[in-house]
Amino acid sequence: xxxxxxxxxxxxxxxxxxxxxxxxxxxxxxxxxxxxxxxxxxxxxxxxxxxxxxxxxxxxxxxxxxxxxxxxxxxxxxxxxxxxxxxxxxxxxxxxxxxxxxxxxxxxxxxxxxxxxxxxxxxxxxxxxxxxxxxxxxxxxxxxxxxxxxxxxxxxxxxxxxxxxxxxxxxxxxxxxxxxxxxxxxxxxxxxxxxxxxxxxxxxxxxxxxxxxxxxxxxxxxxxxxxxxxxxxxxxxxxxxxxxxxxxxxxxxxxxxxxxxxxxxxxxxxxxxxxxxxxxxxx
Length: 283
Description:
Elements: H1 2-39, E1 41-43, E2 51-53, H2 56-63, H3 65-97, H4 101-112, H5 119-131, H6 133-141, H7 152-176, H8 180-188, H9 193-204, H10 206-221, H11 225-230, H12 238-248, H13 252-282
Helix pairs in contact: 1-13, 3-7, 3-10, 5-6, 5-7, 7-10, 8-9, 10-13, 12-13
């Protein structure tokens, strides 16, 4: 009887999966398949449309020190911006989650409001802030400072500012749903606030933390706009490299190979982070 009921429920929800499956295969898996295929083919002749299977694109990437440094710098900046973003956003998320429902709605609105503005405009606004008020403030303490953009600080600052909502919202969603009785029980058992946070709140909020880390890290590692306008031409990261190969050089095969390599690096890092998260849960 239960099996028949389960089959009826499954058949009822099956039509609702069709739009998701169309999006999954048509807009995610199929483009990724094309990128993978493009990365292992090359034209045998410029005159004839003959393609051959080759790993030359991957070999060229790993034999060029500049490309290795490019992906290393991209992952480094993405990691640093993610760490800073987490350190800034977790207390904000906790603060919002502890407010009254009406206040929570207002604070979430303030957090998400910058997302309504185009990312390019937000980045240009940050550039003006770094070139203007913030630069003058720093010069009060160190008059020798003439510019704040075109360095790691400006790029990380831009990444953190642009991606703060993507870190706050997942953590806030989890924290707002925590059962307050667990915290009260921890307090009743004599645990101090620090122990309660480390043993109760932090482990339970880990899914939101991992979601925020994933979104911010992926966005930071592949950004183009931030490095272009806040790097002052001194930064040529993996996103800029892929854009150049596809648009400027029209080398789709090599650009696809770089995309696949970046995808593998990110997947490995995400796998390690998920393993760490699972270990923390077990502890």
